[in-house]
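Database export, one record per block. Field names are fixed; values are copied verbatim from the stored entry.
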Amino acid sequence: MQKAATLPKEQRKLSFADWFTLLFTGLYLLVEWIPNLGAIEFMGPQWLYLSLLAAVVAGYIIFYDRSHHPGVDRIGSSTISVVYLSLFLLSGLSILAAINPTESIVCYARFVVTVTSFFNMAVLLHRRTRVIPVLLFLVAISVLLQSLQALMDFLAGFHDTPLNQLLLGIKGNMGNKNILAASLMVKLAFVMFGIFRSRSVSRGFYIFVCILGAATVFLLNARAAYIGIILETVLCVLICFVMPGRPGENRQRATIQRVGGIVVPILLALFISQALLFSALQENTGPSKYGLVSDRLVELSFSNNSSTGRLDLWKAALSYSKEHPLMGCGYGNWKLVSIPYEKTIVNDEVIAKHVHNDFLEIPAETGILGGLLYISIFIVAFICTIRSFYSSAERETKLLSLFSLVALAGYAVDSLFNFPIDRPNMQMLFALILALNLDSFLMVPSKTPSATSTKKWWRPAFALNLFVLMPVAIWLCFSTYRSLVVQYQTDEDMALDVPVNNSSINAAFPSIPNLAKSAIPIDAIKARYLMLEKKYDQALVLLNNSIRVNPYIMYNEYLKAYIFFMQNRFDSAYFYSKKAFYNKPRSGQYYRTFTTICAQLRDTTDLRQAFELYTSYRKEPEPWVLYTDALRYLQYPVATVSALTDSALRLFPGDTSLRLRSAALHTITPAVSSSVAPASYFEMATAAFRAENYPVAARDFILASEAHTGGYVSMENAGLCYLAMKQYQKAIACFNTVIGSGASSDGKSECYRGICLYDLGKKEEGCRSLQAAAAKKYPEAMTLLAKNCR
C-alpha cells in the first residue's frame, strides 16, 4: 500500500531509457554519501566520483542511447546554456591572469565536471516528465536518510556533549554543518513539490520527510539556511495561490490543503527543533555560540559581528574587483589574493579561502563580466519560469518550472552567504536544478527562437568535451585526491617538531596540485620535513622555488627565518621573520619567531613594537609571557619585568604561566635587581619550558643547577631544552653532566643523549647510549632501539 502510493502509476510506463535516466540521476545524488576515503577533506573523493560519473553518463548519451542526441542540440542552443558556457569560457580565460595558474587549473577541472553534469542531466531529463515523480521520491529519500542520521547524532550526544561541540559534529559527509543544512534546505524545495502534487498516503510521506528535513535545518543553527527555507516556504505558498488546480477539484479547498501541507510541517519542524535545542541547553549550562532558533533568527542582520566577518570579506572582494575589473585574480585564486585583506582579521595561518558570497567571488576571480554572467544565469532562469507559467504548457510542466525556481532561490540564498560553487554536492544540485528548469522551458509549445533554434555542432562539441576535457579533469581530480590523502598525515605532523623520514612523505605528493588545502605551498610542507632533518640547503631550494605559489601567506618566509636562525645567520633570520610577521601580524608562530630573533639580536625597539602590534589584535596571555621572558633574557631590571607581569595578570588573572612568573619575580629583593633568588630559577625555568620558550628555559635551568636547586633534574631539563632547539652538542654536554654525576638511575639522560647522537649522524654512538638507557629499563629507549638500531 505504502509503495504503490509513494511510487505513482507513471512508474509502470517508464521505458528502459527512463530507468537509465533515473539510475544516473540517483548516482549523482549519491555524491553526498561518498566518505573521505583517507583524504583530509570529503571534497577530494567526491569530486573524483563526480568526474568519473560525468564521463560515464556522457559516454552513455553519445554512444549508447542515440535518442538523446536531438536533446543535446536543443539544450546546447538554449539561452541558459549559452550564458553558462560563456561564464565557463571566461573563467578559463582568466587563468592567464592567475597568480597561481596551477591552482586555477585544478579548480577549473571541477568547473568542467559541473558543466558536463549539467548537460548530462539536462539531456537525460529532456522531455521525460514521467520520471519526475520517481525523481522527487529519490530526493525525498536522500533528505529522509540525512535527517535521520543528523537527528540520531544529536540525540546520541544530547546529554553529555556541549551544544557547540554537538552541532559542529553533525555534518554527515559534507565537511561542516552549514553545508549539510544548505543541502537539505535546497532539496526541501523538491519535497514541497512532492507535497503539492501528491495525494493521500504519498502526500503523508512527503509531509513526514518535510518535517524531519526542516527540523534538522533549524536544529543545525545555520542562519543562511534559515533564510533559504523561509524564502522557499513563502514562494511555495505563493505557488499554491497562483497555480490553477486539477480539473474538477474545489479550488479554494485544494489551495487551503496545499498551503497547510507546506506551512504546517515547517511550523511543526520549528517547534520540534526549538524543544530539542531548549532541552540541550538545559542539559549543558555552559556558554554556547549556538542556541534556540528564535534567538538565531533575531540575530539575523548584516552587521560584521553577526555575519562572522563576512562584511569585511565582501568589502575586500568589491575592492579587488574595482581594481581588477577585466580578468580578476584568476579562477580559484581568491584564496591567495584575499590574504592581504584578511591579515588584520584572521589569526595565524588560517585564511577564509572564500568570500562567502559567490556573487562577489566570481567577479573577483574572473572580472566584472564574469560576475554579470553568473547573475544572468539566475535572471534567465527566472524569465524562463515566468514564460513557462504564462504559456499553454501542461500543468505538470509549469509546476516543474516553478518548483525548480524555488530550489534555485534556495541555492541563490546559499550563494549569497556561503560558497556552494566550491562544494561537489551543491554543484550537483545546481546542475540538476538548472537542468530541470531548462527542460521545463523547452517543453513550452511556443515557437520562440531561444527555445527551438538549434545548431548541429553541439553534438561534436559534447563529444569533444568527453574525449579532451573530461580525461584531464578526471586526472586532476584524482591527483588532488591523492594529495589530500597525503595531507591527512602532513596536517597532523605540522603540529610536531619531530623529524620524520621525508622520503616516504615527500615522494607521495603528486606533482599537481602545488597548494595544500590550507593554501600553504606543497613544496613548503616538503621543505619543513627536510628542515627538521637538518637538510637545510635542500629545504631552502624548495622554499625559494615555491615562493610564487602563494606569495601572501608568508609560510616560506617563516621557515627560511627558522633555518637561518638555526644556522646562526641572524641577519637573514631577522629579515624573513620580520617580513612574515608584519604581513601576518596575527600569526602566533610568526610572532614567536620574530620575538626570539629580536631577543637574540638585542633589538628592543622591534621587540616592543611587535609586542604592541600583536597585542592590539589578540588579547591573550601568551604574548605577555613571551615579551617578559625576552626582557628577562635581555637582563632588564626585575622591577620593570615584574610590573609588566603584574599588568598582564590583571588582564588575565587565571593564567598559570603568568602567576608562576609573578610569584618568582616577587621573591627577588629590590637590592639585587640584577640577580634572582636561587629557588626562583627552577620555577621560572619550568614556566618558560611550559610556554615552549626554550632559550630562556635552558638558561634558567642551568642557573638553577649552578645554584643547586632542582637537583640533577635542572641540568637534565636544560638538555631537553637544547634538544628541542636542535642544539645537540649543548644538549649532549648537559646529559653527560647528569650521567657523570651518577645521580640519575632511570636512563632518561642516556636515552636523550642517544637521540642527539643519532640526529648528529653518529648512529653507533647513539645506539650504544640507547642500549645503556634500555639496560636501566627506560621505556622509550627500548622502542627507539627496536626501530633504529637493528
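Remark 1: The chain is about 70% helix and 0% strand.
Remark 2: Confidence is low (pLDDT under 50) at residues 1-11, 448-453, 669-679.
End of record.
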